Amino acid sequence: MLTAFNSSAQQQRFTISGYVKDAQSGESLIGISIGKPGTTVGTVTNEYGFYSLTLPAGTHDIQFSYIGYTAQKFTIDLTSNKRHDVKLTQADRQLNEVVITSRQQEKNINTLSTSVNKLDISEIKKLPTLMGEVDVIRTIQTLPGVNTVGEGAASFNVRGGNGDENLILLDEAPVYNSTHMLGFFSVFNPDAVKNINLIKGGFPAEFGGRTASVLDIRMKDGNNQKFGLTGGIGNIFSRLAVEGPLQKDKSSFIVAARRSYMDVLMKPFLKGDMKDTKLYFYDLTAKVNFNLNKNNNLFVSTYFGRDVFGFGNEANMNWGNNTVSVRWNHIFNSRLFLNLTTYYTKYDYSLEFKTDPEEPVKQAFKWTSNIINYGVKPAFTYYLNASNTLHFGVQGTYYTFKPGTGTSREDEHETRITVKDKNAVEAALYLDHELKIGDKFGIQYGVRYSGFQFRGKGTAYYYADTVPGIRKRLTGTKDFDAGQTIADYYNLEPRLSARYALNSTSAVKVAYSRSAQYMHQLSNTASPTPVDIWTPVSNNVKPQVTDQVTAGYFYSAPGDKFEVSAEVFYKSMQNQLDYIDDADLDLNQFIEADLLSAKGRAYGLELYAKKDIGNTTGWVSYTLSRSERKTPGLSLNEWFINRYDRTHNVNVVVSHEFTKRLSLSGNWVFASGTPATFADARLEFQDWDIPYNTTEKRNNYRLKPFHRLDLSVTYKGKQLKRWKGEWVFSLYNVYARRNAYTVYFRQNPDNPDQKEAVRLSILGSIIPGITYNFKF
Q1: Which pLDDT tens digit goes with each residue over 588-599?
Q2: Secondary structure letter of residue 105 according to DSSP
Q3: From CA 28, how far away is CA 44, in angstroms rounded?
Q4: TonB-dependent receptor-like beta-barrel domain spans which residues (predicted)?
Q5: What is the rounded CA–CA span in Å between residue 236 and residue 543?
Q6: Which of 233, 288, 513, 702 has a CA that sits 20 to 30 A from residue 271's CA?
Q7: Cβ pair 353, 367 in contact under 8 A
Q8: Whole-angstrom Cα distance, residue 101 to residue 65?
Q9: For the segment 516-566, what is each residue's pLDDT rounded down to a tens digit?
Q10: Which string of DSSP letters, residue by residue, matches 30-87?
């Protein structure tokens, strides 16, 4: 009888769950490893610091560990489900010295995810950047598979995808323009950022709506123990963040602001027509959170930012993002967790030109445009046991697109051109299952079912194809009332990732994902600009659908001294947007007549090595890839290279700590030149001189290779109990490389009969920077 009872007890399983937070600040910690030492049994905390681990009844040693924190081990007697919240203490070595404790569960060889790069803000702060300012977007461009068309580009490209194919989330609210100052700085204030996660392939089923990558950025919650100030004063902009408790241990806030002052610094040197030049940006990031009780937490985050650029009253443009997200975390029980997110996002811009007041004829033009989203996302996580986890939920977004209203005025006569608003609804439901089978094999499989409805009120235009590559012919129109469906699309998006451990230090992984995208950014330039148009799919434009296959080998040296990975990928892309030659994208009601449907493909090899421990840390990445398109009617109907293709891309990031107060960081990048289409002949007839391309091939040339070296030195002052400060001295483009952004042709000023090629470089000299960072 006693034997039978013992056998029954051994089969019982109970769950230990709770939150893991920073002991000093109360911040929730993402990706904490929780497990039984000496085994692979364990889990990690989710994006809100919550964990759940189911184990057999009995006594267990459980260890909590994380980068830069002192590991804690507890002995737990599991005779029932238990709630166990943990506070980890930061290790003695701070910011510029990364301390690694055992982190068995989150190592690349043990996770199911492929093509994922996670960066802590302390890692990002070590890199040299433009003007000494920490920048999230520039940092991810040093990772394998990520590139950009050049300095000043307002977007980044991942594995052959266009810039609009990246889903950028700030506390789960989408951001449509991620950069300030035409691409030189990102909109994410480093003083308010906690964690960054870049996913390039093998997407979990919860992510959709974009086809190239997911950049998931999480803001700090704010210190719920004490008040503090963090900031920096630089030669381009300054920043300040204030955080503290609203009620100790129960609620907190953080407010972070930045403002550039290049316009102020330039003013004494600008004369004549340039004296009223405006060039600045500002942003405000804020968040509050409330611990309502042990099972409920509420978070409210907001971001507002704007760029202003202009020359007096003659030419002005400004653009900016505004996001608000409200999230509620609820623990139903030790195994079921809910995060309910609602959000609002707006991106808008305006462009204005005026003639000089002294001109006899007064002329003016103004163009405004925006896109607005309202969204809701209930997401559930059910922890069946230590080897099985379910993720499921639904998502819905309502879109309003305002492509543009243009007003032109000549003296007292005014003309208004309005591209009609567009409305749409996107919805999805998803389910995926994480399954671990023994110590060696794991699989995550799931499916996402998405739908999109392009709705009235509005007019639908119908076109007939003419000669491929030529503007389509309008055949008819139809008016739709508000709420009526003009066109709808539905897609089943399967996802699969699998891992097999070869031994305790290495593993192989494979992944497949299909993803659909229901909106496009219309741009016929190499890099999207702030005034490019976002538009939904319609009765004429189909959604992009991308299938991606990835396989990789991952190695982690004993003791976590360094890690190495090698991945190969292949992407097949359907319904990519292309444009007829000389497409008219500005305030064109019939813009869809200029759009073409193209196929795309991208494939490549990515190598990555990273070292976290010791006085010298950093990483090296190399990407060998190709991105191509095939558009009926263009480039002889053959495959041609994408404008943002980079065959070779190398990044070397190194940081060396000489003492606890002095460190040196460097970043060297090399990339193949971007493709371009140039004329290879010219036709001379009477007074005409017409260049033309005899091959009719797009992107028939490639610019010279891009390379640049950046350096920075960080000197930490005397670290007082309450005040901590450091100086950052940086040199951007150390050897003054004039990298070509593009090449254009003109008549030689000294000999008008000759044509000459001119290299346009955004930056061509050494740019020094100095910043003083402080924390109080």
Answers
A1: 888 899 999 999
A2: G
A3: 13
A4: 286-733
A5: 41
A6: 233
A7: no
A8: 6
A9: 999 999 886 655 667 788 999 999 999 999 999 999 999 988 877 889 999
A10: TT-EEE-TTSS-EEE--TTSEEEEEEESEEEEEEEE-TTB--EEEEEEESS-EE--EE
